[in-house]
Amino acid sequence: MSELTRRDFIKLAGAAAAMTALPGSVGAAGKNESGQASAKKPGTGGDKYLPYDKRTGPEAFVYFTRDLSAAGLLKVFDRVKGVLAGKIAVKLHTGEPEGPNIIPRPWVKELLAERLPNAVIVETNTYYDYGRYTTENHRKTLETNGWTFAPVDIMDAEGTALLPVPHGKWFKEMSVGKNLLNYDSFLALTHFKGHTMGGFGGSDKNIGIGCADGRIGKKWIHTYEGKDQWSISKEEFMERMTESTQATISYFAHKTAFINVMRNMSVDCDCAGTGAAPVVTPDVGIVASFDILAADQACVDMVYALPEESRHDLVERIESRHGLRQLSYMKEMGMGNDRYHLIDIDNGDAEITVKEAVKGISGKWVYDGQ
Fold first, then answer.
1. Per-residue pLDDT at 10
2. Which end of the chain has the least Cβ crowding within 10 Å, N or C?
3. Tell me: the pLDDT tens digits for 344-353?
4. What is the pLDDT of residue 211?
5. Sheet holding 339-344, edge to edge
6. How far apart are CA 63 and CA 192, in angstroms?
7. Cβ neighbours of residue 21 under 8 Å, at least 6 residues apart?
8. How far apart are CA 49 and CA 164, in angstroms?
9. DSSP code of 296?
10. What confidence tier does 27 reach under pLDDT thresholds 50, 70, 90?
11. DSSP state, 216?
């Protein structure tokens, strides 16, 4: 993003913040001038899966490989690398101490060495008190988990910034780590899995929670004022998280790409570390797209296309948390498309269905040795 564009964009955030002082306005925390909760209602249907033939609208492109290796990651990255330029942020979940399910470090090391030698891994501190709650402890956890081969920018270590949320219901702006503004383009490199609050964690969660700073932004997403830390849930949580994502991807405009790695898909997020529920759902592959909704939707569709025994636990987690509202709200927000052409880059770029993508996958997860 050019400096002129950057300045203009941040001015919008300042204007949005100023709006919170106007009579009847709703600020970032969803309060009106009297301090009472604003009369907004979340959508519904987050526990109902919408089949492909019931969706409408344009189709994006999603690239797919079954090759769960460093080579597979390089291959699928090459399909979306064209928008990444300048100083590149690579947002991934670096995990709690000794976390067993995060994207293998050797894959990321090879990707950066071979394709993104000047890129920076970016993270923020957590809202919960564990291994990444403070910058000091976060640095120790990064070392424990082997993220020592590339620079890692804990973006909220030195403060926060406000970014506008275009068309937001719950927020006019989102508080993010201020160092996010130092980058020109953005790669979401996401471990797709279940999530305790979100039902599933795809690119939407990686960005919406992962770029919000640890003390302000994450609190706005998770917590009603004066209530329990995790008091916001189901559809409202999905919408707040998605609006946070909207702030970041709008800031980078069309200089964003999304990769989801469908491997070691516990029903729990990588935030659970060694306490994550054992993996049951079989590994599937890697998807990449310029469209965040299409990337996450394709992964969800592939999970639903698995045999009942293979998909049961993850589908139960998604639906019980009403996580499918992430997808419908991204569409309502104009963030992407829930219809797509699924391109099999393992087989001459043939267009395939999700059933064909998961053909031959059955039973329970088997450790791949990586």
1. 45
2. C
3. 999 999 999 9
4. 98
5. 152-154, 120-123, 88-91, 185-191, 256-262, 285-289, 59-65, 339-344, 350-352
6. 15
7. none
8. 30
9. H
10. very low
11. T
How confident is residue 227, by pLDDT bands cut at 50, 70 and 90? very high
Tell me the C-alpha to C-alpha distance, in Å, between residue 252 and each of 19, 20, 189, 215, 287. Answer: 23, 25, 16, 23, 21
Q: How far apart are CA 45 and CA 151, in angstroms?
A: 41
List all residues 6 or more positions away from 253 whose beta carbon is below 8 Å from its beta carbon. Answer: 1
Site of tokens 């709690």 = 96
> Is pLDDT above 50 for 259?
yes
Q: From start to end of the chain, where are the E strands? A: 59-65, 88-91, 120-123, 152-154, 160-164, 173-177, 185-191, 193-195, 199-201, 256-262, 285-289, 339-344, 350-352
> Which candidate, 357, 183, 356, 184, places its Cα nearest to that of 283?
357
What's the CA gap between 25 and 192, in Å, rounded? 37
Give the pLDDT band of residue 38 (cuts 50, 70, 90): low
Give the C-alpha distances (Å, rounded to integers) separating 194 from 23, 104, 138, 265, 313. 41, 18, 23, 6, 9
Q: What is the mean pLDDT of residues 173-194?
A: 98
Structure tokens at 25: 């306005």
The amino acid that residue 258 corresponds to is F
Greatest Cα pair distance in the chain: 60
Domains and CATH numbers, the chain: 59-357 (3.40.50)
Exposed (0-12), middle (13-18) or buried (19+): which is 287, by Cβ within 10 Å? buried
The answer to whether the beta carbons of residues 259 and 76 sit under 8 Å apart is yes
Phi/psi for 221 (5° steps) reads: -75, -40
The token duo for 257 is 């790409």
Of 262, 282, 284, 274, the C-alpha closest to 367 is 282
The bridge status of strand 160-164 relative to strand 173-177 is antiparallel
Q: Which amino acid is at 191?
A: H
Helix (H) or strand (E) holding 247: helix 234-252
